[in-house]
Amino acid sequence: MTVAVSGGVCGAGQATADSAGATLRYTCTLSSFPGQAMTAQLAWDAPATVLVGQAAPTVTVTATATVGPTVTWALGLVGAATVAGSVDAPGVVAAPEGNIGAAVRMIVPRTAVPASGPMAVHAAGTTPGLVFHQPGHATVTVGNDLALHFSPRDAGGNPTVTGEVDLSCTLDPGQNAVVFSFTITPAPVAAPPVGPATSPARSPTGTGTRETATLSSSGSSLSATDSTAPSTSVSGSAQSTATAAATPTAERAKIGDLAATSAAFLAAGAGVAACVWWLMRRRRRHVSGR
């Protein structure tokens, strides 16, 4: 039952788990009662790897503790028909960051007491989780002592004359107390976020962004556009046009010229209309004179 500690500590990690087990021998003592041998067979599913910084998932640990016929005889002597209780199992995890103490409580369901012979008691518990902060190799070692708490009851479900019974069990010497080992791996490094694309900076010389103004051939609209292009040398009227297009003052001059030209066209049109009107009037007078 003490391997509950190892299963509990190794509950942290990836979803893939390894089935493991151990068999340990203890000597249990009770006041005014000679020491009795107990064998604990343990089983659990625990991951072989653990990620740094992640909380441990829970792992179920099962155990079967077997005691000799002397215990069965003593329980029958006090009128016990069933027993139930719990087991407190300590342990230590040796991790790169240091030793971490851990303990697991396992529950013993109500179990019938046989008439004679050895008695087997089953127990199960859910392990707590630990968080490791440094990668490396780690081992789980069971404690030398564990405490058993039992409540013997008669056939009617009433407590026996002994009441609650507490037993202290000690790990027999000469056994390997390391019951499990696992690897603590570094957490995966997240890729840096990809930021938005930045627009090219304006170049003071060589290549840059210039603004150009275009006057339509009909003289009815004026539009401005931005274009990025390398500075090149032009000659003649093309250079004059580019320079005037890039200068706000030249743009205003073009607009002024357009307005003056429009006014001249309007004045000429008015003069032509006046001449037509005068000729028509003169013709009517000439006809009237006849």
Query: Class of the largest domain, according to the CATH hierarchy?
Result: Mainly Beta
Note the gap between the termini. 144 Å
Number of DSSP-assigned strands: 13
C-alpha Rg (nearest Å): 50 Å
Order of helices and strands: HEEEEHEEEEEEEEEHH
Q: Which regions contain 5 or more consecutive residues with pLDDT less than 50?
A: 1-17, 203-247
Overall pLDDT metric: 73
Short description:
By secondary structure, the chain is α+β, with helices and mostly antiparallel strands.
Describe the secondary-structure layout.
Elements: H1 4-9, E1 18-30, E2 33-46, E3 49-51, E4 60-67, H2 69-77, E5 82-95, E6 98-112, E7 119-126, E8 136-142, E9 145-150, E10 165-171, E11 178-185, E12 207-215, E13 222-230, H3 236-246, H4 248-289
Parallel strand pairs: 3-11
Antiparallel strand pairs: 1-2, 1-10, 2-4, 4-7, 5-6, 5-8, 5-9, 8-11, 9-10, 12-13
Helix pairs in contact: 3-4
Can you offer a commentary on this structure?
The protein has 2 domains: 4-185, Sandwich (Immunoglobulin-like); 210-220 and 234-289. Helix content is 23%, strand content 42%. The protein has 4 helices and 13 strands. The strands form 2 sheets. Strands 1, 2, 3, 4, 5, 6, 7, 8, 9, 10 and 11 form an 11-stranded mixed beta sheet that branches. The protein has a two-stranded antiparallel ribbon with strand order 12-13. Helix 3 crosses helix 4 (248-289).
Give a quick set of tags describing it.
single chain, alpha+beta, Immunoglobulin-like, two-stranded antiparallel sheet, 23% helix, elongated, transmembrane helix, transmembrane, DUF6801
